[in-house]
Amino acid sequence: MSIKFQLIKVCKQTGARAGFLTTPHGVIETPVFMPVGTQATVKAMTPEELVGIGAQIILSNTYHLYLRPGIEVVNQANGLHRFMNWPGPILTDSGGFQVFSLGALRKITDEGVNFNSHIDGSYHFITPEKAIQIQMVLGSDIAMAFDECSPYPSTWEAANKAVERTAKWAVRCKDAHNHPEQSLFGIVQGGAFRDLRVKSAETIIDIGFAGYAIGGLSVGEPKNIMYDVLDYTTPLLPKDQPRYLMGVGSPDCLVEGVMRGIDMFDCVLPTRIARNGTIITANGKLVVRNAEYAVDFRPLEPGCQCYTCRNYSRAYIRHLVKANEILGLRLTTIHNLFAVIRLMKEIRTAIIEDRYGDFVKDFWAKYTIKEGLPEECRIT
Hints:
Oligomer: single chain
Number of helices: 15
């Protein structure tokens, strides 16, 4: 079976969307945040723990799994789900962003991308067809077309070239894809140029995919530019299909992205900053490794019902983090993912109850951005 998207509610206050996304491995309630399991694991978490905190779908990465352990190993394990013991849906990123992030280690042509592995320097050549072949072997529920992500800032000419190459590659990806239980999403590029976003959206939609992603954001641009791009790009996408904003996952961006009609998000941010001792709360971030928490025996976030907050104090977790104990990283990761997933549940409820506009006002009344939830939080 392929995926099926059912839009069940459009908030009367804002136009934000709630729906169901049915996949071969389960039904997903949208809007949804996807924890990132780049190398077939969400760092510091077991699959059982992910299920316990309410994760519905995870993202894995084609580029990384192709290099290590190799698709032959995953194929012998009968696919990525069995290999990593994850029972729910999986979306695989095509690897385009990772390849294009290699800088001097890669060379882009119309045929594909030549690159050297960041692991051992070995030479590789990935075409759109090969990216699709790898994802079909991985057996994810949703595969992504191979695209060219232009950097920020970028000239119009460079962004236009990426848009045109992305469109040509999208056709080749669709032609190569024939997995009966996997759906393929197309990706809209165009940088921060409105005319190019319109051009890319029209072209990719005309090719026809099961869902559509907005790529090329969260690559270093200011958030106001990202929101501006979403304001004019998201309405171009089909209303009856899922809309996916790639690489975005800070609480403020999730709230604003949903406001602009996005259904799906992914990001390494909650797990990455957790490993640095930075905690996501409803009021903003908390850096638990700071000295002020050395004798603070409150939970990370008072009132939070995650495993970490129900059992451990800031003082203890700070001690673990400062001592480089693995348990500390696990406890902060559990909380951060729980906090983001909890936020998405609250967002969905507010949409269904036609009060998402009020929800956003309440969110901003208490949420403070301090010097650092990173602007750029894509997988590297």
